[in-house]
Amino acid sequence: MTSLYPHWADLLPLRSEITDADGQIADLQMSLYSAVYTDRYVPYADPGYYAEITEPTPRLVQFMSTVARRLGTRVRGGKALFHLDQGMGGGKSHALVGLYHLANTPEVFLTTELGRQVKAEAEQRGASLDLGAARVVVLSADNMTPGATSPEFGPATTLYERFLWSLFKGDRAMYAQHLAEGANKAALARALEAVGGPVLVLLDELMQYALALADERHLGSMPGEKFFLDSLMDAVDEVDRVAFVIVMIRSDRDDRGYPAEAESLRTFVTSGIERNGISDSVTEPQDFSAIIRRRVFKPAGNLPVPAVAAAWQSSTGQAWAEQVFGRLGARRGLTGLEDRLAASYPFSPDLMALVRDDWSRHAGFQRVRSTVEIFSATAFYWKRERDAGRWAPDLIGVGDLPLHVAIENILSSGLLHGNERVIQGYRQVAATDVTTKDGAQGRARALDELLTERGVDAGQAAPALRMATALFCYSLVPRAQAKRGATKPELLAAVYAPGVEFHAAEEVFNTLISDDEGLGALDVTDTAMGRGTTRYHLAVAQTLRMFYKQAKNAIEPADRDTYLWERAKAIARVHQGPFDQVIPVAAPDAAGRSLSLVFSDVDQNSKTRLVILDPRRWTLHNGRDTPTRAEVAVLLGVGEQALPVDNAASCVIACVNTQRRDAVRKRIVEVLAWRAVIAQFDPEDDKRADAQAELRTATQRVDEDLQKAFQHFAHLTRTDQIEVDWQRFDDDTKTALKGGHVWDALANFSRAVYPGKLSGTYLKTLLNKIARDLTLKEIGQQFYKNPAFPLVPSVDDIRRAVYQTLSGPEPYQVIDGEGTAQHISSADELSIGSMELRLRKAPVIPADGTPRTPAHPAGAPNRHPVPALRPAHGTGAIHGKLLPAGPGEGDEATPAPEYRNYRLEIPNRSVVSHEARRTIANLLQEVLDVVDPEVGGDIQLLDLQLSLTAVPDAVEKIEQSAEAAEVSWYGEELDF
Predict the structure, then answer these.
(1) Nearest residue to 67 (alpha-carbon basis) of 118, 138, 13, 104
(2) In terms of domains, do 496 and 526 share one?
(3) What's the pTM value of the predicted model, to 2 decimals?
(4) What is the radius of gyration, based on Cα positions, of the chain?
(5) Is residue 828 located within the same domain as residue 792?
(6) Which pLDDT tens digit goes with each residue over 173-227?
(7) Reduced to 3 states, what is the DSSP secondary structure of residue 59?
(8) Domain ends where: 748, 773, 807?
(9) Enclosing domain of residue 448
(10) Roughly how many angstroms between the first and final C-alpha of the chain, as a whole number?
(11) Residues 515, 519, 523, CA angle at the centre, nearest 5°?
(12) Pick from 31, 4, 26: which is nearest to 16 by CA?
């Protein structure tokens, strides 16, 4: 069959370093030490070659330009401390070599493609980049021994001494002068300034040095090294045109074991970075394709991507379309193939997706480094096959990794976390079921011979070998959602190409999974009751902990945090306690969502509420909790940005502690990992019961730690003003997730009462502080709207307390709208929701027999002063004038209030637009709050005229309310 497009092996020349080494790239792992100090030649020591093999990915360009801007311009602001924290093979040392070339030979580096992009990005703010006379301090910590000298650093034996020696380029006088000043921040700043130009400090592989420091012989020097690093991290911020880049793998991405002393250095440095710097990465999984193609092949233009994609799409018959590509899922079928292929060619999008989406999820996999090693060996093998006139795939797919050549590259890539037992198991499976290292034996090769004898023609040299290889690669580690192995459509797709008949590919598949003839290590996972898709994988014997470790490294942070939030809500709802309602507030799913929408469900009338804040957004005590505290204040109606809430006094906010939340997160990863492990076992597997026991234990630990983590709660309190009061449980047996615990704490400082404990005497004390008589409804509302009143378990407690005020010393009485005292014989007769009945002090009958209504005590504070009216968003104007003081009430010693007359004018204003209407509505709501007898102050007279132009239906409720209030309402026809 004539090819519809040229073959990739004829278009893409391999780089010479790959062909010279038979597919293995020497010096693939770049070493900053080798590029700077050693006499051994490494090609990337040449800035031109470095730029040629380096893909200018967005993250790398952005990172290097940020450092360049810091070094080469006088633009103020920005961080001087940078931390590269990716795992092994993430491109950290590669980036450091680039930064070295940038600062050491800018005249060469900035003329390359990569350098030009870095320069353009760095100069976007308008400042020209000038890196002349830059000094580079290179501290390759993995090539240093504590307490020992080395040729590169003269007499220096510590990080501090090596820093000074390199900073002054071996000038002994300058070295001695500044060494005598010590490693404090001020001395280091003076040393950096003494250079008289830009200074770039590169500290590579710090944890290797930490491991050496942890040795008993060098442990005594650990405090001094910490002091120097801490001072330097502070000092670089104080000096212009200085940058400090640290390479130190983050603890959760580093599966190498370190002693506690070494981990303490990592923790110490991490805290300094969090304080002064930023952590970053220079590659992302989506960069793999471009990085690999540039590292393996020389640049080539006019790639036949459109022709390949068109041929693959047009050659699929109904069976391929329906049985394979239609079942692969989103971004796996033929739709959008050209776009995906443009990024991956000559490798298939499926192979790239396996590496990016499944292999890269595992912390041990060394991302770029491992991928380049595997793919360079693969490309070299198939290029040589093509040159020899033998068959080679049109696209290098999942089944085209030549295991007899690349098996050790795959097994040593870190995918299996260095577990020698598992590695040996898969090495044996590859040799037995796929192919031996000499390429002569293996079950899959035998099946290809068998299929040839049967006349099965799949249009390729070894379809069974390709399909078995794909199954092997899919089986190595748990994939997304803890799924194992591959589906039938995935395995069939591994042998597809234009001209391959579906029935032939299916015959290969059926032979491969046959009980009699198929692969010996094949394990089939059938779905329950026929739902879902059957999965196939090659199994090796693993312990339960091995399964757990693999599953643990595949847990996504988003899944972990979702579980955290769901458990917090579940615990709070089960332990509501005396609160009327538990209200969870989730983090907004869209950036920029207004707080009024986020907190829209919180403000509710006549209910005590325990609000649980989503720990994914709101945390306390991490040194950066100002946004959390500010947003809680907004929620409770405090501060300049306060929301217009009415019932904040009866609302309590529960919040998580940051450090304890992080501990819970680790526990949750254990739960999710055990869930994933259980999903991999058949119901009758003995390991399943053990895993279920582990899951129960892990779940219990999560719940315990989660309750400890929610140790903070906030509520309103009234002193000389209304403010937010933050409280914390120091007793680990208490939690803000349990309403009973929170209520107990509130009751301890009289912010809440227990059932039946609200006394009439206490209520009298509260009412004495209010400068007017209240209706029964207003009294009830005080417990929900006024933070001077305690939270109550129910309205019955309020009713009983009001009834108790009617007797005893200084009794009160209930009067109707006409001022007539009502006879109340029991608490049940009190209608707490009444707006007609008021509670006042019973008249005192003196010696002359004339009843007198007792006045409020002299100096009793008015807890409902007249709110200060203000224009709402410039909507209208407020006018006022001072009126003569009217007659005072109560004791003659009480000063008479001074009343003013206020007038609000809104000239003819269009409210057609939503924004204009909302502005006016906000203003009128302010007016309503002032007039409201429950929350408003001392208002004597209201003269209101309101003119609206609207359809009748829009104002029908106003007309009904006007009639009920016995005020005038009329409408008229318009002529326009």
Answers:
(1) 118
(2) yes
(3) 0.56
(4) 38
(5) yes
(6) 999 999 999 999 999 999 999 999 999 999 999 999 999 999 999 999 999 999 9
(7) helix
(8) 748
(9) 345-552
(10) 80
(11) 75
(12) 26
